[in-house]
Amino acid sequence: MNMIIRKFKGDDEEEVSELIRSTFMKCTSKDFTKKGIESFLKHETPEKLKKRAEKRIILVAAVGKKIAGVIEAKNENRISRFFVNASFQKRGVGTKLYQKIERICRQRKSKVIKIYSSLDAVKFYEKMDYNKTGKAMKNRHGIVYQRII
Ligand SMILES: CC(C)(COP(=O)(O)OP(=O)(O)OC[C@H]1O[C@@H](n2cnc3c(N)ncnc32)[C@H](O)[C@@H]1OP(=O)(O)O)[C@@H](O)C(=O)NCCC(=O)NCCS
C-alpha cells in the first residue's frame, strides 16, 4: 500500500472530520452512553477541527487521494484523537501515524505521552509497549476511557 504521512492542511477538514465521525460511530461509540456519543459528535465538526489544527499537531495518512487515518496531539504530550478508517485498519496505518507523532513529541522534549484511550484501542497501545494506568473510567459526559502512559 502506497501511503504517506503528512501534516493536516487547509482543505482536509471536511474529509478528516467525516473520517473521525464515521470511525467513531462504527468502532468506538459502543462503549459510550447516549450522552457521551452526543457530546463527542458535538465537538467533532470541520470548523472545530480546523481551529484545533492552528494549535495542535495533526497528521494524516494519505493513500492516493484518500485520507485513511488521522492522529492529533495536544500540548505535545497527549494524544487526543486517533482514527483509522475501518476499511484500512490492521494494515499498519495506525502504527505509521503513531510512530511519526511520537517522534515529533520526542523532538519537542516530551518524555511521557499520555493517552485517554478508547477501550477498543487498548490492545493497539499494548502492542506499542505502552502501559495501562488504573481502571477504565467514565467522565461526566458519559465518555468511557482507559488512561495509558
Ligand atoms: C486504534 C487504531 C487507530 C489502530 O489503527 P490500525 O491501522 O488498525 O493499527 P495497525 O494496523 O498499525 O495495528 C498494529 C497492531 O495492533 C493491532 N490492533 C490494532 N487495532 C486493534 C484493535 N482494535 N484490537 C486489537 N488489536 C488491534 C493490530 O492487529 C496490529 O497487530 P500485529 O502487529 O500483531 O498485526 C484503529 O483500530 C482505530 O481507528 N480504532 C477506532 C478508533 C479508536 O479506538 N481510536 C483510538 C482513540 S485513543
Could you state the order of secondary-structure elements as H and E? EHHHEEEHEHEE
Q: What structural category do the secondary elements indicate?
A: alpha+beta
Number of separate domains: 1
Low-confidence stretches: none
Topology, number of strands: 7
Number of helical segments? 5
In whole angstroms, the N-to-C terminal distance is 30 Å
Architecture (CATH level 2) name? 3-Layer(aba) Sandwich
Strand line-up in the sheet with most strands: 1-2-3-4-5-7-6
Which geometry do the CA atoms define?
Answer: globular
CATH topology: Aminopeptidase
Helix content class: 25-40%
- Based on CA atoms alone, the radius of gyration comes out at 15 Å
Provide a concise account of the structure shown:
The chain has helices at 13-28, 34-42, 46-53, 93-107, 122-127, and strands spanning 3-7, 57-63, 66-74, 78-84, 114-117, 137-138, 144-148. It has 149 residues and is α+β, with helices and mostly antiparallel strands.
